[in-house]
Structure formats: C-alpha cells, structure tokens
Design goal:
Strand order of the largest sheet: 9-8-5-3-2-1-16
Number of strands: 16
Number of domains: 1
Order of helices and strands: EEEEEHEEEHEEEEEHEHHEHE
Largest sheet: 7 strands, mixed
Radius of gyration: 17 Å
CATH superfamily: Ribonuclease Z/Hydroxyacylglutathione hydrolase-like
CATH class: Alpha Beta
CATH topology: Metallo-beta-lactamase, Chain A
Structural class: alpha/beta
CATH architecture: 4-Layer Sandwich
Number of helices: 6
Helix content: 10-25%
Length: 266
C-alpha cells in the first residue's frame, strides 16, 4: 500500500481500489483540480467516515468532491482528494449516516454498527467502538453513531481511531480482539482545555498509549495543524508526541510524523 498522508484525509492504494479515510474534508470554498498519476489505475473508491459533526460532514464539501471530472483530484490548503464520481465511490459509515450521503447522490453506502464487518473485494472493514459523540447542529446530538475502524487486507492491517477520547478498556479490548495492527492512525490534536476536550479527544500522550493498546507496529498521528479548534498552539501536538515517544523508548521510525503530501510504502 502507498499512503499519501494529510492531516485530515488519508488515502490508501490497495490493489485496484483506492481508499480514503476522513477526518475533516473542508474543501467547499476553494477547489483546484489536479492530475494524479494513480487515479486512472484504480477501478473504484472506498470512503470511510468515523462520525458526524459540523466539520466531518460538511455538506458542500461532499457535493463538490463528487462532481470532479474523471482523472482528477482536488487540492485545498494541502489536502489531496482522489474522488471521481459517486457511482464509483463506496462509502462506509457508522449507523445513521447513510441518509446524509444518499441524499447527496452517493449510490453505494454501507452503514455499520459496532463490531459489524463488511468486505469489498480484498478489503475487510470492521466498525469498532470509539469514545466520542455526534451531531451537526442544535437538536440532533448523538442521533447517529461514531466509531473507529479496523481495515484489513491479505497483506496489511490498519487501525483508524477516528475522533476519540482515550479509554484503556475500549482500546485494549480492540488489541486483544485483533492481536496486532501494522499501523494505527491516531489523533493527537484538539485537547486543550483538558477539562472540556479530554472526554472526546486524545492528547499526544494518550494517542501513543492508544496505539500501544491496539498493538500497532507503526503510529501515524493525525488531526492536528489544520483547524484552529482548541486552545493549544497549532504545532504543539507533534512536539509533545515526539517528546513522549522518546521518553518511553519508542523510536522515531515507529512514532512517525509525516509531512503533508508525503507518501510512504508499507
């Protein structure tokens, strides 16, 4: 798999399928089409959503993502999106989010409860517990589910936490269930003030502990340096992440910090 990593959209190329994992696709204001050399080699797109709130399900973003001409992606403030048309995108969401995508013309939407699994070609996806909430506005709080994901193929196992607070009970159970992951994509930002954010967002130290709990070989930090959501300085999360990893004896190679647009083969 090749992994071009952004802070909010992570894309995985697996055989003939291209898989995108979402944190915050805010692209509705400015979109510039670009050619991507791999886009024409994929015969379908898989899109994974962790939960809904005013950023994660930004309606005009999804509308614009689906209207791109074949063979193009989009660029917006560092994000790359490799979506083409709705008929070739299979969307995987937690319970209750299917109507949001169906209403916007996506034909292939699967919603899963915690511990439900589905397969598409060689990729198996399992929706797993997370510690968060959902809601896009006043009056719809927690009406849809939130989740983390296990993404597995014959060669690679990936854990994607989505947005979550830390729970040793939840994540050690996932580690026991799946035994190990090749990598864990975990959120390290939006944690200050702790008395408000800790129940729903991990700080860098908790994110590393979560990756250890699920028994991940490689740790990929996400959810930082993109949106001014909370009070910590925007580049504090990776500094704390690296410092804590070094303190507890985790190598820089394992506790990776990837640049926007960087590609890594695993």
């Amino acid at each position: 798999m090749n992994i071009p990593l952004k802070q909010c959209i992570i894309t995985l190329i697996a055989s003939s399928k291209l898989l995108a994992i979402n944190h915050d696709p805010l692209v509705s204001q400015t979109i510039h089409a670009i050619k991507h050399s791999r886009s024409t080699s994929a015969d379908g797109w898989l899109y994974i959503q962790g939960h809904t709130n005013g950023r994660q399900t930004h309606a005009s973003s999804y509308q614009r993502l689906s209207q791109l001409p074949p063979g193009t992606g989009t660029r917006n403030t560092g994000y790359l999106f490799y979506f083409q048309n709705k008929d070739r995108i299979t969307v995987f969401v937690p319970l209750g989010l299917k109507p949001f995508f169906s209403k916007r013309g996506y034909k292939n939407v699967q919603e899963l409860d915690w511990q439900q699994s589905t397969e598409l070609d060689e990729i198996k996806l399992t929706a797993l517990p997370a510690v968060h909430f959902s809601g896009r506005g006043i009056g719809d709080g927690n009406e849809t589910l939130w989740c983390s994901w296990a993404i597995r193929s014959a060669s690679t196992n990936i854990f994607f936490s989505g947005n979550t607070g830390y729970s040793p009970t939840v994540f050690k159970a996932i580690g026991k269930q799946f035994r190990s992951f090749d990598m864990a994509i975990v959120p390290i930002g939006a944690y200050d003030p702790a008395n408000v954010m800790q129940p729903v967002h991990t700080n860098p130290e908790e994110a590393i502990q979560m990756a250890n709990d699920v028994r991940a070989d490689l740790i990929i930090p996400s959810h930082w340096g993109t949106i001014a959501l909370t009070d910590e300085p925007p580049f504090e999360p990776p500094e704390r992440y690296r410092a804590y990893a070094n303190k507890i004896g985790i190598s820089d190679e394992r506790a990776s910090i990837m640049k926007i647009g960087e590609t890594r083969t695993v």
